[in-house]
Design brief:
Length: 157
């Protein structure tokens, strides 16, 4: 079942709030692709999602641009925030061992995952963020699979 929704946020605080509101809908297991240009607010949205799981406050959530993967644990989920901006080849992707993160408690949030076809194929949810003004963002959310679909494990990258 495919469901599309759109939102407009007018500040980083509103984008964070939207993430907090979406958190209950992103119950594990889920693989979520976050798409948008640099500075579109992907990490800001993730801050709200993580805060929605009562893991930590938003100031402690940062972009994993250089570390590639950040992990947050809550009683309800193991949240993995992954940034593939600097990952260009299937071999580089393989070294991250992302398949080892998949599990029944996993909420996997991937920035720049559209670079790899497998994540487009395997994702449960796609969130596309577009900058429409200095602080305004258009956020489109597409759910591809039922809420209780497990994250598929793909042997090929």
């Amino acid at each position: 079942m495919r469901r599309d929704r759109e939102f407009v946020t007018r500040s980083p605080e509103e984008t964070n709030d939207l993430g907090r509101q979406l958190a209950p809908e992103l119950a594990p297991p889920k693989l979520v692709l976050l798409q948008g240009e640099l500075g579109a607010g992907k990490t800001t949205l993730v801050k709200g999602i993580v805060e929605g799981y009562s893991v930590t406050n938003r100031e402690q959530v940062t972009s994993p641009t250089f570390t590639l993967i950040h992990e947050y644990r809550s009683p309800q989920a193991d949240i993995y925030h992954i940034d593939l901006y600097r990952v260009d080849t299937p071999r580089q992707l393989e070294t991250l061992a992302i398949d080892d993160l998949f599990g029944p408690r996993s909420l996997i949030l991937i920035e720049w995952g559209e670079k790899f076809e497998r994540f487009q194929r395997e994702s449960n949810v796609r969130i596309v963020m577009k900058t429409t003004g200095e602080n305004e963002r258009k956020i489109s959310i597409t759910n591809f699979k039922s809420p209780d679909s497990p994250i598929p494990r793909s042997p090929d990258v």
